[in-house]
Design brief:
Strand content: 5-15%
Number of domains: 2
CATH superfamily of the largest domain: 2-enoyl-CoA Hydratase, Chain A, domain 1
Strand order of the largest sheet: 1-2-3-4-6-9
Helix content: 40-55%
CATH topology of the largest domain: 2-enoyl-CoA Hydratase, Chain A, domain 1
Distance between the termini: 26 Å
Structural class: alpha/beta
Oligomer: single chain
CATH architecture of the largest domain: Alpha-Beta Complex
Shape: globular
Length: about 260
């Protein structure tokens, strides 16, 4: 599946989505973000896709929103683009609501809105080429509160302060030490490691993986306070333990073989 701004390929039991504007540093447009949300919604209905890798074409993940396009828009139009209910929020919500893990492969820059897009992914893999940062302080704007809250929730207040007060780009090893990258490998290893990671996660029990993603989202406060979410969480636990997957997982462990998920 290919269009001008996004490429989607299915590899075994996971999908690779590529932001595809390499001549523009994969700068994000409204149509690209809306397309990303649509692709993720479509893949969420495919039982064979149990992980997604999000990457950029060429040497950058993405330089963030297309500032050249934003310069031609009114403040109100730009607010709709990045604010609540706009294309950026829709894409990020689609990543967070995708039922299985989404992995960001951060080659080169992931700046501004693209930094938040990578932050919304469940895992981030980077290398010495990785650069992540948020430049609003250099642009004279205040980042939307939904985004600020996501950075604080994911990385903590101290890291969020470093990102937004300094407005600098942090490099690969720094990002790993700050907890912004979950895995740090060499530039040569970046793509094969990320693909192997995705493939490895698809070998786990699908019901278990879905349940863990949903439960982690609930207890992290993304959708409901823990007391309100507990009945749903316990329902996921009960469903999994009573499933055929649990029977197969335990039997495979006893028989010292790889489980066969249906």
């Amino acid at each position: 599946m290919v269009n001008e701004e996004l490429q989607v390929k299915i590899r075994k039991n996971f999908a690779v989505i590529t932001l595809n504007r390499p001549s523009k540093g994969n700068a994000l447009t409204a149509s690209m973000l809306e397309g990303l949300a649509g692709v993720l919604d479509s893949l969420a209905g495919d039982d064979n896709v149990r992980c997604v890798v999000l990457k950029g074409a060429g040497e950058k993940f993405s330089v963030g929103m297309d500032l050249n396009a934003m310069a031609d828009c009114t403040p109100e139009e730009n607010q709709r683009l990045i604010g609540a209910g706009g294309p950026l929020r829709l894409a990020i919500e689609a990543v967070e609501e995708f039922p299985f893990p989404v992995v960001a492969m951060v080659r080169g820059h992931a700046a501004g809105a693209a930094c938040e897009l990578a932050t919304s992914c469940d895992l981030r893999v980077g290398s010495s080429s990785s650069r992540m940062g948020t430049p609003p302080a250099r642009l004279g704007i205040v980042y939307p509160p939904e985004g600020l809250e996501r950075f604080v929730r994911t990385f903590g207040l101290s890291v969020a302060r470093k990102l937004f007060f300094t407005a600098r780009y942090f490099e690969g090893r720094e990002l790993y030490m700050m907890g912004m990258l979950d895995f740090f490998v060499t530039d040569e290893e970046l793509e094969p490691f990320t693909m192997e990671l995705a493939d490895r996660m698809t070998r786990n029990a699908p019901l278990s993986t879905r349940g863990h993603k949903r439960t982690l989202a609930l207890i992290a406060g993304q959708e409901a306070a823990p007391p309100e979410a507990m009945s749903e969480i316990m329902g996921l636990v009960t469903e999994a333990i009573a499933s055929d997957e649990a029977v197969e997982g335990i039997r495979a462990f006893q028989e010292k073989r790889a489980p066969k998920w249906r």
